[in-house]
Amino acid sequence: MPFAPPARTARGRHGRFPLYANDAYLDRYHRPERARLRGLAANPAVPGALLRRLVDEYDTDTLTSVEYREEWTDEQVAALAQHPHRAIRITLTQAPGLTPEQRTTLVEDPDPLVLDLLAEGPDLFTRWSSEPVPLLTDAGYDRLLERRPEAIKTLAWPRHRDVLPPRIRALLPPEEPPPAPPVPPSPEELRERARDESEWVRTETAAHPDLPADVVAALAVDPSPHVRLAVSMRPELTEEQRAAIDYHVGPDDRLQPLLWVLRSDDPRVHRRCARSAHIGLRRSIALNTRIAPELVALLAADPDPAVRLLLCERNPQAPGEVVLATYLEARVVTIGRLLQHPNFPRDGLARRADSPDPRIRALATLDPGAGPELIERLSRDPHPLVRAWAAGDRRLPAARVCELFEDPAVAGQAARNPRLPVAFMERILREAAVLREEQPAEGGNVYLGNWTPEQIAAVENG
């Protein structure tokens, strides 16, 4: 997946974009010597011995890029699988780009923790789909359990069960019954909680399914907007009752998804939530992957950007044109995952290469039908974002990759390109030696939150 590091032009963005990095951090992050290290760590063609040197000498700067490499050769895996530092081997167990055959080479690791994490596998968030996939080969599962019998408990997790070989599945312990539900509070207890001085206790109580109707009515006019909002999203309310409550949900407000909506298999509940005037209900049903196609289409046209974003992030039925539009409009740190959506419209993106918007021009590099001439033209674009996306494209001639290697704005992306000559890869390690003398950036920070220009100025001015 194309990637461009945080740009200085992103400073001062606010609203739903949750990231703000100050100048000191960006100067350090964008330093070409450091950007090239990250790029080389992700390069599909880096020789195994060079990757090992990179990790040995610059693990702090490169280990995250190593973990999230999209492609691995057997030579590269072998170069790190015997590393003396356990942290490096653990990184391999969590790398989503490894094939089951490559991950199976780790079952001989001497460290029990490595074997335990090998059984767990990568975080599912690293893949667009949460569908389970085999972690190891059939023989790999056999050998893992031979060396680490305790791993059978991890392999029994729901995310692993369905993809295990039948003979391994037969060894799994029976699924544990769900724990007994807690004893529900009595009506008297709920009434007491509804009168608690803490608005957070009242907010939690306002969502309780067993709340008496008179308490619901009392909390609907609670002085706290959090309590009133919680009441407004109760399942038994009609649209008229919700509208009568003085609640507010702004476009930038984050809401906890409603479990009664997420877990519902009832088409009537799905329709009611998708057509509700309440943004909270529509955002929650957008996360439910069991909704009918007509409701997917309805939510894809929702006026609330968060509804469309949540739908595109979770539902494989989301229309491709909506996924593309959402990618272009959203300002969240996870937006790159939409590029992996099964309906993301890659074919035909080359036609957008002349768009006045650099984000759209950059997308032209995703078109599998874009020829080398177009990729080279985009690599000379005046905007660094467009050049960055083109710089890592393997359709780019090696000579142009080497030229972009010298461009400070896109040097890291050029270092990712598999057509970069090995001599340039070796040069990256030599020139990175200057980083050993670098002093920590004073005041370098990344901040999370919804930042206005005034808040940013306040942070910078102490």
Explain the overall architecture.
The structure is a single chain. With 462 residues, the protein is mostly helical. The protein has three domains: 33-169; 187-316, no CATH class; 349-444. The chain contains 29 helices and two strands. The protein has helices at 23-30, 32-41, 48-67, 74-81, 86-93, 100-104, 112-120, 138-147, 152-155, 158-161, 166-169, 187-194, 199-206, 213-219, 225-232, 239-243, 259-262, 267-274, 279-286, 293-300, 305-314, 320-329, 358-363, 372-378, 384-391, 398-405, 411-416, 422-431, 453-460; strands spanning 19-21, 446-448. A two-stranded antiparallel ribbon has the order 1-2. Helix 5 packs parallel to helix 7. It starts with 18 loop residues before the first strand and ends with a helix. The model is unreliable at 1-18 (pLDDT under 50).
Helix-strand layout with pairing:
Blueprint: E1 19-21, H1 23-30, H2 32-41, H3 48-67, H4 74-81, H5 86-93, H6 100-104, H7 112-120, H8 138-147, H9 152-155, H10 158-161, H11 166-169, H12 187-194, H13 199-206, H14 213-219, H15 225-232, H16 239-243, H17 259-262, H18 267-274, H19 279-286, H20 293-300, H21 305-314, H22 320-329, H23 358-363, H24 372-378, H25 384-391, H26 398-405, H27 411-416, H28 422-431, E2 446-448, H29 453-460
Antiparallel strand pairs: 1-2
Helix pairs in contact: 2-3, 2-28, 3-4, 5-7, 13-15, 19-21, 21-22
